[in-house]
Design a protein that fits this description.
single chain, mainly alpha, elongated
Length: about 200
């Protein structure tokens, strides 16, 4: 149960750190992002383009740390669910999503450029697609797992609603992508809080 508690804290810290980093870096690199073609309501090269700016190393490190924290969170969540197909598939997919998030540390290529696409830009794009597919699989199967577990009552519907609301906007440009990112970070944070609550109940 101690590992579940650690995993829960990883699930809380990861989204919080990631969201705060994006907000701060967007302010610090506002002019740089404008130079890449980004606009507040036209999401071009955001957030990955922030890693190309003067403070980009910060985001590169956060991509890796957030991915590792998500992977640990997925392993802890696995222990708090039944040993059935849906929980196994859901947590494995969340684990893969964590590795894909860490893979975003490979620098992206700016959308507007005069040079060919680089190998690291291709890797970045591949991990981005993998992240979206892994999150979709994870949320759909975890939603099912939560629905059939009385300890997670209500979280199944919440997960399905979040997936239906957020994931179609994953590939969209514009303000919809902000909504996607916010919904996913909030979902991970809420599930981690629940996992922490369960770890305290078991100890009691």
């Amino acid at each position: 149960m101690q590992f579940q508690k650690i995993a829960a804290y990883c699930g809380i810290i990861g989204p919080s750190m990631f969201g705060a980093t994006l907000a701060i870096l967007t302010l610090l690199e506002y002019d740089f992002m404008l130079g890449l073609g980004w606009r507040p309501l036209q999401v071009i090269d955001w957030p990955s383009g922030l890693a190309l700016g003067p403070h980009g190393l910060w985001l590169t490190v956060v991509f890796i740390l957030s991915g590792l924290l998500m992977a640990i969170f997925a392993l802890g969540l696995r222990g708090a669910l039944r040993n059935e197909t849906a929980p196994r598939t859901g947590t494995l997919s969340l684990l893969l999503a964590g590795f894909a998030l860490a893979g975003l540390a490979f620098p992206t290529d700016p959308t507007f450029r005069s040079t060919p696409k680089t190998w690291h830009g291709l890797l970045h794009d591949t991990f981005f697609v993998l992240l979206g597919l892994a999150l979709l699989t994870s949320m759909l199967t975890l939603g099912r797992a939560f629905q059939t577990d009385s300890r997670w009552r209500g979280f199944g519907i919440y997960t399905f609603v979040t997936a239906a609301f957020a994931l179609p906007s994953f590939a969209m440009k514009g303000i919809a992508f902000y909504l996607f990112l916010g919904a996913i970070l909030a979902w991970a944070f809420v599930i981690a809080i629940k996992l922490l609550s369960l770890s305290h109940q078991v100890r009691a």
